[in-house]
Amino acid sequence: MTPRIVPARIGYGGDYNPEQWPREVWDDDYAAFKLAGIDTVTVGVFAWAHLEPAEHAYDFSTLDAIVARAADEGMRIVPATPSGAMPPWLARKYPDACRVDFEGRRHVYGQRHNACPSSSDFRRAAVALAKRLALRYGDNPSVVAWHIGNEFGGACWCSNCADAFRGWLRERYGSLDRLNDAWNTTFWSHTFTEWTQIEPPNALSEHWRGPDHTAFQGITLDYKRFMSDQLLQGFLAEKAAVREHSPDVPVTTNMMGLYQPVDYHRWAPHLDFASWDNYPPEDRSSTRTAARMALAHRLMRGLRDGEPFWVMEQTPSVTASRDVNPVKRPGVLRLWSWQSVANGADAVLYFQLRQSRGACEKYHGAVLDHAGRTDTRLFREVAELGDEFARIGDALLGGRTPARAALLVDWDSWWAVEMSDGPNRNVRYLDVLTAYHRALWQANVPLDVVPVTADLSGYDVVVAPLLHMVKGDLADRVTALVERGGAFVTTALSGRVDEDDNAFPADVPGPFASLLGLRVEETDAQQPDVANPVTLFGAEYDARHVFEVVVPDDAEVLGAYGADFYAGTPAVTRAARGRGHAWYVATLLDDAGVAAVVRAALAEHGLIGPLGDVPD
Amino acid sequence: MTPRIVPARIGYGGDYNPEQWPREVWDDDYAAFKLAGIDTVTVGVFAWAHLEPAEHAYDFSTLDAIVARAADEGMRIVPATPSGAMPPWLARKYPDACRVDFEGRRHVYGQRHNACPSSSDFRRAAVALAKRLALRYGDNPSVVAWHIGNEFGGACWCSNCADAFRGWLRERYGSLDRLNDAWNTTFWSHTFTEWTQIEPPNALSEHWRGPDHTAFQGITLDYKRFMSDQLLQGFLAEKAAVREHSPDVPVTTNMMGLYQPVDYHRWAPHLDFASWDNYPPEDRSSTRTAARMALAHRLMRGLRDGEPFWVMEQTPSVTASRDVNPVKRPGVLRLWSWQSVANGADAVLYFQLRQSRGACEKYHGAVLDHAGRTDTRLFREVAELGDEFARIGDALLGGRTPARAALLVDWDSWWAVEMSDGPNRNVRYLDVLTAYHRALWQANVPLDVVPVTADLSGYDVVVAPLLHMVKGDLADRVTALVERGGAFVTTALSGRVDEDDNAFPADVPGPFASLLGLRVEETDAQQPDVANPVTLFGAEYDARHVFEVVVPDDAEVLGAYGADFYAGTPAVTRAARGRGHAWYVATLLDDAGVAAVVRAALAEHGLIGPLGDVPD
Amino acid sequence: MTPRIVPARIGYGGDYNPEQWPREVWDDDYAAFKLAGIDTVTVGVFAWAHLEPAEHAYDFSTLDAIVARAADEGMRIVPATPSGAMPPWLARKYPDACRVDFEGRRHVYGQRHNACPSSSDFRRAAVALAKRLALRYGDNPSVVAWHIGNEFGGACWCSNCADAFRGWLRERYGSLDRLNDAWNTTFWSHTFTEWTQIEPPNALSEHWRGPDHTAFQGITLDYKRFMSDQLLQGFLAEKAAVREHSPDVPVTTNMMGLYQPVDYHRWAPHLDFASWDNYPPEDRSSTRTAARMALAHRLMRGLRDGEPFWVMEQTPSVTASRDVNPVKRPGVLRLWSWQSVANGADAVLYFQLRQSRGACEKYHGAVLDHAGRTDTRLFREVAELGDEFARIGDALLGGRTPARAALLVDWDSWWAVEMSDGPNRNVRYLDVLTAYHRALWQANVPLDVVPVTADLSGYDVVVAPLLHMVKGDLADRVTALVERGGAFVTTALSGRVDEDDNAFPADVPGPFASLLGLRVEETDAQQPDVANPVTLFGAEYDARHVFEVVVPDDAEVLGAYGADFYAGTPAVTRAARGRGHAWYVATLLDDAGVAAVVRAALAEHGLIGPLGDVPD
Ligand SMILES: [Zn+2]
Ligand SMILES: [Zn+2]
Ligand SMILES: [Zn+2]
Predict the structure, then answer these.
(1) B265 in A contact zone (CB under 8 Å)
(2) Range of the domain at C596
(3) Which residues lie closer than 8 Å to C391 by C-beta, 6 or more apart?
(4) pLDDT tens, B456-471?
């Protein structure tokens, strides 16, 4: 089920909260929307207190007016369920609707995105309201999609979540024996003999220096999986409520791209289409930002096997929540918006259409500023883009981007490698992932960004940096890829742990060792300012952070360390297997070094794209 | 009512806590005081446990002896109410006398300055003791002033404070409708439908990264106002108790100068005279420190319309609570003390007269060290200054400093601009305020530092950096100033919000836009290492942090940006209005740039002072 | 009682936890141990959950098998009591067995080393199990020593600890009057009138910016002393239980060398022999690391008057808990192990013999890696060292190192100087101690590192940096040392406070002033980047952080400051007393300056060792 976009064109518009200002202004709003070519509005995202000012006392009059006006104006409407921000009365009556934080503290009413996903009181209230919304607006022909909640994320450590976690564990492991084995509890006398002995891992139990520092990685890893699933249960409950009365309208929620706490691969099957909010961290290098956004777009597109997605939010000008909030330079809005479309977006929406009057987003950019002007640089750029989208019509809708190269992303590896004690806390999954992605992006190769469970049979080159955890039949699928002539490229710290985050009782890199034709005997780590020069294809690159000492079996040595006691030993290798090759980069290379490896692998398959040699 | 200083001379002395050491030492103390020309002692600041060792069991014997001896020795006596540090029995019996901190944690007994201002138990006990003190010492002719509590400050987030906050809000807003409008609660579904739903804003409710990061600026702003008022209630209750039995003795409390948490402008009408503790943050540049102290002195003097004030505390040598505590260099004590007098101080007192034996101030400097020596450099400098004060007699007492220039300080703007999300967290109110003040100070212009409610009719030049919030009739008064020939100088981020911290639904800078003859269309922000060169009066200055893109109406462009997409657009403007000018600096200039603007405005009015061109 | 090491040779082996992997692996383990010359195993350190899976339900079957196999293989066995890591059922049943942290938060089950030392529930369970272990294995002839708990340390702030603290204070002070005097409670109205008013000093009471920042140093100092004693009570209770059934086997626990929270001098009399875990903080300068380890070895040796000790743990390759975990370079393992022996170790053990499968130490190095390989560089180095140890036999066992020079270490001074408010938080006890030790180490003088209570009559040179607190008859013993011809070297910030951390009511440096022939009139402090050049013996050295302004009486001035208002005044002095000299360094000199002073004092006594002039 894909969102109904009729007439067929790229969706354009954004969050629209007219309940936050006087009705007199609505006319100005629509006049401006016309000028800007805006045809899509997301409504009601934060309207709970408006819609249900007291428990079970519903008041849809304002939203009725908003929806009616939007429909009259020919807008495509995306109604939201407002569960992203609960009303004060709910927190006051049901204190367990508020979360307990990582420090073990129960919160009281405030902010948003803070409902405990295990609170039955919160769930019941959210579902009841979702059902009523669906009943009221579900058959409105202007409604093109449902937007459940908002930016699901974060975590809770309350006793309800503890109970739910224990239930989740029972289901996952069946027995405490199996759980004790998975968590290696004989270490430090942790053998659990009753399910109730299990505590959520936080600052009061297993953690010692923050969320990444845990005494038992297995417990924390499972809590991350559980919490991602538990948040999903909230989404699913609301989706079911909506579906009941609005069976034909597709349902989504706005994801957050490269967002660590939620495993979107576990969510993807439950969305009717993917959508996400594009707020790249500020970065003066527009190339790096552009590459990072491309990765996020591709990750989102890869969630549902290449289907188009929506950019549900982006700011037209500035954010407000950063320490420093620069404005988008002239032309950037247009550039980034078209980049979204080129990567598979069927809609490009703004947060938001009119600027907030007060509170923490009053300086967040909007299509219309506090004065409501349409003679600003910002508004002109918005309107020009609206005009371009109108002119291109449906030409790009539903586009697919066939790719022979793939980049593997795995939330379990992301979590595992960043909470690992040893070898080096300065190794961050996103840093390495984005470095490899950037090399692929600069080579201009059509690329899929897919989970480790993806079918690899259509690819020639598969790149998998920091594939720390190896689950299921992945090693077999990778081996098959190589045997049939493909290239597999992986890096240091891959092949280290099984699905339970326990080390393989075998040579490193575990299930990949024989494919790669080597074993890793030692793993050195150094401070960020220490570089080891690696000679590769006749050039020299800096390696940092992690330096595996490799004992090659039949792998060909392509690059070697130039310093330290392992000078002269392999840093980059390639093993011939069947008709293909398995590449190993035993350290973290600088960008140029990563590019050299990636391009070599691509080149063997003729996959350097057009313009792939243009410098940044 | 001003403090009785008889015989008339600059008060000289300080905190004197002889209950902390054996009586044998008292003779040495007074022998030394004579040598040093000390004539004023503040007594009993931390004596609660001494005076009331158990609830309702009072023991004034030691304080009687201290006061009697001081009177015999001809000292002017400033008795304190000891509410700055509660005794252990009080905290044990009344746990709610201790504060709940920003993290939501109830504290137990310890430290000082930590009583909940909403605890009726604490208030009752403090008032009862204050009353007894007034009864006992109020008619002693040596008593020249009352010193209530000590350095009122900090904040509490307990349930008693929550209740008091709700009461304060009821009084301020009258109705929840008005409150919801003020706080813009439709944003993020915060509409409050019962007063009890309102929680104190802290780490468990609206705050997300510390005290400056709140989801609802309006709530946090009101909590700051409330807490400042609530602390004042504590002061007022004790003052009333004292006044009852000591009707003719003036009452003060020692303030802390440039202290963000308390709005001294709201306190000022309730003091009989102002006094403050001068502990400048360490700074190797003596010019910057001197300028900063001058600002603080002037702020204190400006509290009560130019009346003289007291320096209630300064260290004669070192502080102890800083990470690094350098000694005052030879002559600095004299220099800074005379600076106080030159800025309006009628008394210059030390903390303290004899050094503490143990605990956290045992290394804090004192007139007499642990060995009680009078042959030290420090003591000699103290004594020489005492001699100078004796010789100058009453020549400077009650002095006034007529000024045609004013600097506006506004706690509401201070609070609002520093808790704002966007545009730039690196903009700090004091940094900008001190930069503009330093330019005025270096130009050697007589200057008043006054609140935004001050009568501006006597000024030729009014400088108001970061006047973020515009309240009441301020814009009218400023316009009148300009119309009648004055100069008004303001900066980026001014004129942004109303009294509720909601954006004006108008062009920026709101109520000042037409006076300044421009509108601000965009506000760019950059990291601290990014400078944009601004050409102004033929010279070039660096601008940083915030760069407003200005569309001039009829303002004259004096300076322009030299870089970025807004290169060539106005950075500094001046609009002619009536017989005067309204100046706008649309960015944060470096010190030289600020000086260029300020001096140009002063020069038009002939206000560059003598020696105003001497370099630092 | 010293550990039975039969046959006599340097003990070699380490922690062995075969209950953590399948029995099939045990054969491989022992085959490898044979190859490596390993003859000692520590067993059961984390086996509580294994040994007592439910309260009072013991199961020794696995440990029986482990011990039997080890004995059969000829291993020397060191059984541990497993109280370092409690089982989940215990925490669940007895929540008060878990600690309350510095922030006042009760923890729940997790991690290790976290039992409240005042929990009678925990104590009872730990003792009962210790008793059963002793009964079962105490007469096994292969058992050479008992290992109580693991790395005792940390602290608890619960109400049981509060009660125990009050009891400890009653015993120490007898009366509240004496306690109030010791803590100088008249300062800030803290006079305690009931024992129950006393709260453990933490973030909710006396502390304001972390564990080093307290309002009442005396309270915090006593809490540190109490907690060190309270942890010792736990050790003693288990020791007594073990001794009951295993009267002839020596008992130890693994200490942590330069570990601030526990005063090992108070523990030493209760150990049958000392042992410690050697994990030096990573440091690229091997000389600095080597010197630091030497200091720690000597401190451990000095605990029991020069008796040999054991290195109970070291990693053969990498740690895991650091941010960055480099591998030991080739040869380093051998070098550091022999350094241990040279400093008095009779056994050198690893943590651990086989690498953990999962959780936070899965990447911590071990003699056998996850694959169990014996053909690695690491294993080869371990085996070569084992061979060397076997060959040297008993030649070095029980060695003593007579010394005429001593370095004084004092936990009270360490605690006091680092929690002091003023003069400079950048002064860290270990920095200064290691600087003076390094100078001694580089001079290659045989050196004892001893407590301030040590008999000084056998020494010619005694060096005591940062001897902030002077207790008991120390000043007399130091004076006697000097009178009979010895040299005493001390530094800035010495002689400041008495045993209660109250300033001496006398010239600084208190009891040392007349011995040193000077008084300190002022103490300046500066930021770390400010250096004052000190001319000494014709060379110039940088002084930093603290600069005492000295008024010499009859001390000879050896070095003087070159800058600031005290330029030309003494920085280094020497007073002739009797036949000896008392040296004073009134500031913190750079390494070369420290070496100049230390070598001058040593040289006068002919104590520069052989090779004492070899550069690093
Ligand atoms: Zn929860
Ligand atoms: Zn309170
Ligand atoms: Zn405890």
Answers:
(1) no
(2) 405-604
(3) none
(4) 999 999 999 999 999 9
